[in-house]
Write a structure and sequence with these properties.
This is Putative terminase. InterPro entries: P-loop_NTPase (IPR027417), Phage_terminase_lsu-like_C (IPR006517). This protein folds into 4 domains: 83 residues; 248 residues, P-loop containing nucleotide triphosphate hydrolases (Rossmann fold, 3-Layer(aba) Sandwich), CATH 3.40.50.300; 72 residues, no CATH class; 195 residues, 2-Layer Sandwich (Nucleotidyltransferase, domain 5), CATH 3.30.420. Helix 9 packs across helix 10, helix 18 packs across helix 19 and helix 21 packs across helix 22. The chain is globular and about 85 Å long. Strands 5-6-7-4-8-9-3-10 form an 8-stranded mixed β-sheet. It is an alpha/beta fold. The relative contact order is 0.07.
């Protein structure tokens, strides 16, 4: 058994053992071991790189300027990742549509054992040993029947985070982690089945509590745990002293053969005071404990959070020095939900929180608007097929730059169908950004839409109109920071109508923002551009002026600091939207993705909305029009 305790002394040592093990497998190393050895080799690469470069970097630092040092470090980083990045992919085959990857049916544990027929006892012992520190490796080795599709970024994050935290040595306190994850992302099988079994097999915990919305749903997960401990062939071979029915083996409660207790409870059940001999619960998994009805009811919300969770569940820990880990995972069903509160440091400062969205980056292609019209065509009985065919014909353009959390399990096309079918459900269940209809300021019926291309009166006015724009910059360093928005409009002094003619809303770098403003100005020739200059935003305005001077171009920019309450400012323009003073272009809404996105932000805006960039920018533009009109009326009255 010396092999079990062995650590790799060098990359060569690791590679040698990898080659040896590869020869012993019937059909070569399985994917999960390939991934493991790749990761171990990557660690050696990292170490070698930083050691070998240290002296050279030191010499560079002593003989160069600060700018040269910064550039050198960046070049070395780029070089390192170019040389050492390893792409790990799962083998797959495609059936039917090339747009929907279908993976080979996952192998069963019995097949895993057959595949390892030539491995020595020491080899198998080593694999068992290294799985104790790696939840991901454990899952792939013993539960291939649960991992039906390639891992998502959420899955990899959970594997890595829990492996690190639970294996952390000499912990004085347990962790408290809250994760908001999209619905339908296979999170429960990981945290409610595989995680507890990992802790049981390696004696990482003594008393595990699994809490779900109802006692019945939690019991179903525990039944799955029992089934695996009884019938999983790989577990039976590698952990014979643990598997099989233990001293207690009933619905809702088990004690395993290695003396670990696991219980399932429903939301609201008493937790405080439970013990297993001298042990208090040391791992609590809260898996989807909230439902829509409980979130809507103020009485139920207050009971769950303040009386049950705060006063009961959170006081399950034992004396000082004991470690109790709390893992809370679910989908945000409302702004007042417990999970949303756990994600707010002001509410629960001792919790570490993470939020994942099904769509990380949306398409900016206008083709999606055409696709939506085809999908909603009531006169086409085959509209689903028609829309799908249109998508396949324009797939490359429509999927360009899109990013989703789980491409294989929750593809972009399916998510867009959900979005156009039920925007509210999509926002909550897939984006963890729930909408409260009672708090939304502007509804669809409040909008005043005209086709600016076909209305002759509007066309005549816009031909000679003076255009004003408002710009809300984003100071994020990355392209995927907040939206930056440029809204252009014109006011008809005779009728008082304000026509919103152009909307440019994108996530982009600072340089791209400046370039887009210049392009828009050259195309439209604005009379004035209102520029929000709070904090560092003024730097963008200064850079715009500098660049246009170098181009010999004069763009009339007016700096406007916004320090008053944003929500109150946005509320002030709602009456002008509802009474028709502000008019939007119906044609652009149906043909321009950015225009449609801006109106979507307007129709989903409430005080706690995560995306309010367009609403904020629109208010700046309207404020300028109202201020100018007021000044004009004052001048007329003084004559």
């Amino acid at each position: 058994m010396d092999t079990i305790q062995r650590k790799w002394d060098s990359k060569k040592d690791l590679q040698s053992y990898r080659e040896k093990l590869d020869e012993e497998y019937v059909s070569g190393l399985p994917d999960y071991l390939v991934k493991y050895f790749d990761e171990q080799e990557q660690r050696f690469n990292d170490t070698e790189f930083f050691i070998n470069r240290a002296r050279e970097r030191g010499r560079q630092m002593n003989t160069s300027t600060s700018e040269e040092r910064a550039q050198y470090i960046q070049d070395e980083r780029d070089k390192f990742w170019a040389e050492h990045t390893v792409r790990l992919t799962k083998k797959k085959r495609r059936l039917g549509s090339h747009l929907t990857p279908v993976y080979e049916e996952p192998i069963k544990a019995e097949e895993r054992i057959k595949d390892e027929a030539n491995l020595t006892v020491d080899d198998i012992s080593l694999l068992v040993s290294i799985s104790s520190n790696d939840l991901h490796l454990f899952a792939m080795r013993y539960f291939p029947h649960y991992l039906r599709k390639a891992d998502s970024r959420l899955h990899l994050f959970i594997y890595k985070t829990l492996s690190r935290e639970i294996n952390r040595k000499a912990r004085r306190k347990g962790f408290k982690i809250a994760i908001a994850a999209p619905r339908g992302n296979s999170k429960s099988s990981l945290v409610s089945i595989i995680l507890p079994i990992w802790c049981i097999c390696y004696n990482k915990k003594k008393f595990i509590l699994l809490i779900s919305e109802t006692a019945n749903s939690a019991e179903e997960f525990l039944e799955d745990v029992k089934r695996e401990l009884q019938f999983n062939a790989a577990l039976r071979r590698d952990f014979p002293h643990i598997v099989g029915p233990g001293p207690t083996w009933k619905r809702g409660e088990i004690i395993t053969n290695n003396n670990i207790k696991m219980m399932s409870l429903g939301r609201g059940n008493q937790i405080r005071g439970r013990n297993f001999g001298s042990y208090r619960p040391d791992l609590l998994v809260f898996d989807d404990i909230e439902d829509s009805e409980s979130v809507r009811s103020k009485t139920t919300r207050e009971f769950i959070r303040h009386f049950w969770f705060n006063k009961d569940a959170m006081h399950v820990e034992g004396e000082s020095g004991t470690t109790t880990d709390f893992l809370f995972i679910g989908t945000i069903l409302g702004k007042d939900s417990l999970l949303n509160a756990l994600l707010t440091p002001e509410e629960y400062p001792d919790w570490i929180s993470y939020k994942f969205k099904a769509v990380e980056k949306f398409s900016t292609s206008d083709k999606w608007l055409e696709w939506e019209q085809l999908l909603k065509n009531r006169f086409d009985v085959d509209r689903m097929k028609t829309a799908r065919r249109f998508f396949e014909e324009n797939e490359e353009e429509m999927l360009k730059d899109t990013e989703v959390l789980w491409p294989e399990g929750d593809p972009y096309y399916d998510l867009m169908i959900t979005k156009v079918s039920d925007l509210s459900g999509f926002s909550s269940e897939k984006m963890n950004d729930p909408l409260d209809p009672t708090k939304i300021l502007v509804k669809e019926e409040d909008l005043h839409l005209e086709n600016f291309n076909y209305d002759s009166r509007i066309k005549r006015f816009l031909k000679t109109a003076s255009f004003v724009a408002a710009f809300d910059p984003s100071v994020g360093k990355k392209k995927d920071a907040d939206f930056s928005v440029l809204v252009t409009g014109a006011r008809d002094r005779k009728t008082g109508h304000i026509y919103i003619t152009h909307i440019n809303i994108r996530r982009r770098s600072v340089d791209e923002q400046i370039d887009d403003i210049i392009k828009e100005y050259i195309n439209i020739r604005h009379k004035l551009i209102i520029f929000e200059t709070n904090g560092f935003q003024i730097v963008i305005a200064d850079n715009l002026r500098k660049k246009t001077r170098e181009m010999g171009l004069h763009i009339p920019v007016k700096d406007v600091p916004n320090y008053s309450d944003k929500h109150m400012r946005i509320q002030s323009i709602v009456p002008l939207i509802k009474d028709g003073t502000i008019v939007f272009d119906s044609h652009k809404r149906q043909s321009n993705q950015q225009y449609a996105l801006a109106l979507e932000q307007l129709l989903t805006y409430s005080e706690n909305a995560s995306n309010d960039d367009f609403c904020d920018c629109l208010e700046m533009l309207i404020r300028e029009f109202r201020t100018n009109r007021f000044k004009m009326l004052v001048k007329q009255a003084s004559r």
